């Protein structure tokens, strides 16, 4: 067991170093250790001028997370008649950090998991760079199945937005990372990268979640120069907006 733990620790360190190098990081974030998640999310009063209205929950959606995740891959959702496999969310129900992507990638269906292949490898390095892993984040997609051509149909965006917002409210994370344009539109109602660079408030029944929008790893693979900007987003996500 000790050897396996050592291997996992070394792998995480190597993954974080790979991401930092790709993002062009050449200085430490802080000289002293930091509890990244200890930074409080600004209160609803702080966001009074810009906070979104509380989410209107659709009665048909289950009020318990486990029930909701099972319902999400059933026949009551917009993607039910689409081809392919519905991929359920993963991660702790009480995760401090939630990540929402637009939809599964083409290779994800074979594994039955979100963020696999080269995209998933880069995603794992991004998480490792801020001291996280898949084991501690709640990972979900706006679309449970991959749409034709990988683009979310506009006619179901409003319903998928309602479903995704309900999902966030059930997890009630301290921070939410939105990866890509479709995820930004679904939750913040605006395109990314216009939503980048600031912490958005998302109000739900339990309180307020701080939301950060950033580039999807598949975009970063195509446009490596954007990794430096993505690193800034990750710092903002973890409460260090001053860097």
UniProtKB/TrEMBL annotation:
Residues 88-235 form the Uracil-DNA glycosylase-like domain. GO terms for biological process: DNA repair. CDD domains: UDG-F4_TTUDGA_SPO1dp_like (cd10030). The keyword 4Fe-4S applies. It comes from the Bacteria. SUPFAM superfamilies: Uracil-DNA glycosylase-like. Keywords: 4Fe-4S, DNA damage, DNA repair, Hydrolase, Iron, Iron-sulfur, Metal-binding. One of its GO terms (molecular function) is metal ion binding. SMART domains: UDG (SM00986), UreE_C (SM00987). InterPro entries: UDG_Type-4/5, Uracil-DNA_glycosylase-like, Uracil-DNA_glycosylase-like_sf. This is Uracil-DNA glycosylase. It comes from Sphingomonas liriopis. The lineage of its organism: Bacteria, Pseudomonadati, Pseudomonadota, Alphaproteobacteria, Sphingomonadales.
């Amino acid at each position: 067991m000790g050897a396996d733990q050592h291997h996992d620790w070394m792998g995480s360190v190597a993954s974080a170093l790979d991401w930092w190098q790709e993002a062009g990081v050449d200085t430490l974030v802080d000289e002293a250790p930091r509890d990244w998640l200890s930074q409080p999310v600004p209160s609803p009063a702080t966001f009074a001028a810009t906070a979104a209205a509380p989410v209107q929950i659709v009665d048909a959606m289950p009020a318990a997370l486990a029930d909701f995740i099972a319902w999400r891959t059933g026949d009551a959702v917009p993607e039910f008649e689409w081809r392919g496999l519905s991929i359920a969310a993963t991660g702790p129900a009480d995760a401090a950090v939630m990540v929402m992507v637009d939809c599964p990638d083409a290779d994800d269906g074979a594994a039955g998991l979100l963020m696999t292949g080269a995209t998933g490898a880069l995603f794992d390095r991004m998480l490792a760079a801020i001291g996280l892993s898949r084991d501690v984040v709640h990972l979900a997609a706006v679309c449970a199945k991959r749409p034709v051509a990988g683009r979310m149909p506009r006619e179901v965006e409003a319903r998928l937005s309602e479903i995704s917002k309900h999902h966030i409210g059930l997890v009630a994370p301290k921070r939410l990372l939105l990866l890509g344009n479709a995820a930004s539109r679904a939750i913040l109602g605006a395109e990314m990268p216009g939503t980048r660079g600031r912490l958005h408030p998302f109000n739900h029944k339990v309180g307020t979640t701080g939301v950060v929008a950033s580039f999807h790893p598949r975009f970063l693979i195509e446009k490596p120069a954007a990794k430096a900007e993505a690193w800034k987003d990750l710092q903002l996500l973890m409460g260090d907006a001053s860097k």
